[in-house]
């Protein structure tokens, strides 16, 4: 059994070397995967989601 890791907007920005506003803009524009958890101010992405998205970006 594998435990899924979750990343906040700040974590994702750090991983991608982008700013938090950029990640929020990409999310709003539909250029970023939908968050796994989006409740109030809490926004979290699953590690597997981000890996799939990055793999798709590298293939393009």
What does this structure look like?
It is a single chain. The chain is an alpha+beta fold and 60 residues long. The chain contains 3 helices and 3 strands, in the order βααββα. It has one domain. The chain has helices at residues 9-16, 20-29, 47-59; strands spanning 6-8, 37-39, 42-46. Strands 1-3-2 form a 3-stranded antiparallel beta sheet. A hairpin with a 2-residue loop joins strand 2 (37-39) and strand 3 (42-46).
List the helices and strands and how they pair.
Layout: E1 6-8, H1 9-16, H2 20-29, E2 37-39, E3 42-46, H3 47-59
Antiparallel strand pairs: 1-3, 2-3
| Gross geometry | globular
Q: How is the biggest beta sheet arranged?
A: 3 strands, antiparallel
Instruction: Let me know the average pLDDT.
Output: 91
Low-confidence stretches: none
What's the arrangement of strands in the largest beta sheet?
Answer: 1-3-2
Structural class: alpha+beta
Number of helices: 3
Task: Determine the fraction of residues in helical runs and give it as a percent range.
Answer: 40-55%
| Total separate domains | 1
Alpha carbon gap, first and last residue? 32 Å
How many beta-strand runs?
3
Summarize the structure.
With 60 residues, the protein is an alpha+beta fold. It is built from three helices and three strands; from the N terminus they run βααββα. A hairpin with a 2-residue loop joins strand 2 and strand 3.
